[in-house]
C-alpha cells in the first residue's frame, strides 16, 4: 500500500463518523496506459469532495460529475472507463481502459467497523484481504501474506480480492551514494523510507526530501520492532560493522525482502562470517539476497539502486526472476 491509501481511509472514516454517506472507489484492473495501479483508492461525497486518485484526472472528473447528478445509488457498481462499448463519455485521453469498483457506504455501524478495520490494518503489522462479492456487495476480511498482486479476481468472476496492509516500508541500513539514489527511487514509488546511520558525518551530507532519518545503528532500529510483512531491508555501505549486524537482526523479522550489497566473492565471505560469528542458520542465509538486486550490469550508484529497487518491487508483486 501507499501513504495515499491511508489518507483516503482516514478521510472516509472521518466522514462516516460525521454521518456522511460516502463512495469508496477501487481500481480493479488496468489495460494499456494508466497512471494508477490496481488497488488504488479514492473516496468521495455526493457534493464532490474527495481524497485519492484513480487516474490522471479524467476518470475522477467523470465519476464526480455523475455522482453529483445522483448516480451510483446501489451498494456496488463496476465501471470500465475507456471502453468504447460503454459510450464516448468515458473514453480516456491516454487510450487505456480502467475498471473501477464503486462501493456506496452509508454511515451505518457495520460500515464504520469495516472502515476502522481498514484503518487499523494500514497502520498495523498484519496484512489482510478484502473479499468483495460483486453481485451482493458483501465484504469480509481474510488473512493474507501481503505479497502478490494488489487485486485478484476469483475464478467465477463473482468476487474480487483486494490486498490491504501497512504502507510498503524500506529500511536502508547505512548511508552511501547508493543509499541516496535508492531512497529517492523508493520514495517516488510510494514506499515509506527510513534511513538508519549512527555516523553524524554521514548524516550531515545526506539530503533526500521526504524520508525519515534515524541516528542509530540499523540493527538497533530493526530489533526495535520496525519491520512488518511489507518491509524491505537493504544494507548498502560495504561496512560489515553496519551491514552484517543489520542482516543478523533482519532475518529475525517478517520482512519480505532482505538484501546486502557486495560482489559474489564478498557475499560468499559474508555468508560464512554470518554463520560463524552471527549464528545464522542455512535458512537464515537463504533469506538474504546477496548479491542484492537484479543483474542489470549496474556500475553507477544510480544503476545499482535501480537494480535493488526493481528487485524489491519484483518480490513485492510475487514475480519470479524467470518471469521477467
Automatic annotation (TrEMBL):
Start and end of every XdhC- CoxI domain?
A: 15-69
Q: Where is the signal peptide?
A: none
Q: One Pfam family of this protein, by short name?
A: XdhC_C
- All copies of the XdhC Rossmann domain together span 170-312
- Superkingdom of the source? Bacteria
Name by which UniProt lists this protein: XdhC family protein
Species = Litchfieldella qijiaojingensis
* Lineage, opening ranks: Bacteria, Pseudomonadati, Pseudomonadota, Gammaproteobacteria, Oceanospirillales
